[in-house]
Structures are given as structure tokens and as C-alpha cells.
Amino acid sequence: MKRAPGRGRPFTIVGIVLLALMLFPVYWMVNASLQPTGNTLRGDWLPFHPDFSGYATALHDQGRNLVTSLVVAVGSVAPSLALAAPAAYALAQFRIRGTNLVLFGILVTQMVPGIVVADALYSAYSDLGLLNSYVGLILADSTAGVPFAIIIMRSFMRSIPREIIEAARVDGAGMLRVFRSVVLPVSRNALITAAVFTFLFTWSDFLFALTLTTTETVRPITLGIYQYIGAHTNQWNAVMATTVMASVPAAVLLVVAQRYVAAGATGGAIK
């Protein structure tokens, strides 16, 4: 049955309006970053005469924080995948007693308030000397990435035909060789999806950064923006310029990895 022409137009209009409402804060952030120093509420709706002084100030004051966030975010991906990939494979392909209980425990860890984990880590880090360190932040942020990565990759690895694994075993490949040479290449989309979300979790982290760093030696951009607002409330163009620069890496990563994320997130839905 054919749908009458124009019947779906009201839904399209509603969708466009909702999209515009959701994107307006992003537009205003970019617009405010191109305004002269002062109150952004008095700025023009369109940056007819863009002023890039806010970006110069942001790069001077927050450039190091951006690098810190990039190092911590990229660094968190490696241990998260190194732990999550074999765990997901074992839970997906091996007949292990108590698998459902383990999965339930993983889900429970996602429900624990972040402040509880941060407080516990602060006490441990204080004794181990990991406060104000890249290693400390990487390990802390990995605690958020590992459970989610296990869930995503296990769902995908369950869809891998057992015949492929058994054929590799018949050819003489050991368990580690099968995992490295067969399972990981086949699970590329799931690995990229887990890596992207782990990066995004770490890049947007504020709680661990606030709790586990007390000096300017290691300060992620989220904490830099928070303290930047308190110190320069009249330089909103610089504040907004910092938020624009902080949004670019995450936006670029999502655009580049979009097709892999879509395939990895839905790969285990159809078996």
C-alpha cells in the first residue's frame, strides 16, 4: 500500500524543529566563541565580524590541558581493551559455570555511583603515590571503560560461528593463536566501538579528574574549563572557545568511526 504524497511531511517538520533545538546550544557555543570579550548575551546572532582572540587565549591557557586529556583518553583505551577483549571472548564462547552471575556483577558495577569509586581510589592512590599522575587517571578511567567494553564485545563475539574457531583448532592453532588471529580480526567493529566509547568516557570525565588531581601538573580539559570559568568569568569568548576545541576531537572521532560503531553496536543483535 502506497503512502499518500506529503503524508509524512509533518513528521519531517517536527524532526527538523527538534534537531534545530538540540543543535542550537552547539551553534551558540561556536557563535559566542567568535564574539569579542564581554557578555555573550549582547553578542550578535551571527558572527559577521568574528574575533579569534578567544581561541588565542584558550590555546595559551588550556593547551596543556587538552594534551593531558588526549594522553589520558588514548591511554585508557589500551588497558580497557586488553582486559575486556579476552574476558568478553571467554564469556561468549566458553562454557563457564556462573557466566550469568559474572555478567550480573559487571552490570552492577555500572550502577555504583562514581563518587564512591573516586573516594576509594583517592585513599588507595594516596598510599601508592598515584595522585596527580597520568597513570593514576588512566587506570581510574579504565574502570568505566572495561565493563561497557565487555558487554559490547561479548554480544558481538557470541555471533561468531563456532565452526570458524573449531576449524582453526583443527589446523593446530592454540587458544591464544585462535583468539589473536581469528577472533580479534573478526571482531574489529566491536573493538572499534568499545575503543570509541572508552575514549569518550575518558574524554568527558570530570569526577575522577576533580578527585584524583590536586595540582596543575596533570589537569584534564574538563577540570580546566571548570576552573577557567571561576577565574575568567568576563572572558566568555575564551571559555566557549575552549569548549569548542574540547568538542572537536570527540566529534571527529565519531564521524570517522561512525560506520564501525553502528556495525559493532548491532552486530550481536542478529545471530
TrEMBL record:
Coiled coil: none annotated. The keyword Transport applies. Keywords: Cell membrane, Membrane, Sugar transport, Transmembrane, Transmembrane helix, Transport. It is found in: Cell membrane. The chain crosses the membrane at residues 12-30, 66-89, 101-122, 134-153, 190-210, 236-257. Residues 66-257 form the ABC transmembrane type-1 domain. It comes from the Bacteria. GO terms for biological process: transmembrane transport. It is a multi-pass membrane protein. The keyword Transmembrane applies. InterPro entries: BP-dep_ABC_trans_perm (IPR050901), MetI-like (IPR000515), MetI-like_sf (IPR035906). GO terms for cellular component: plasma membrane. Belongs to the binding-protein-dependent transport system permease family. This is Multiple sugar transport system permease protein.
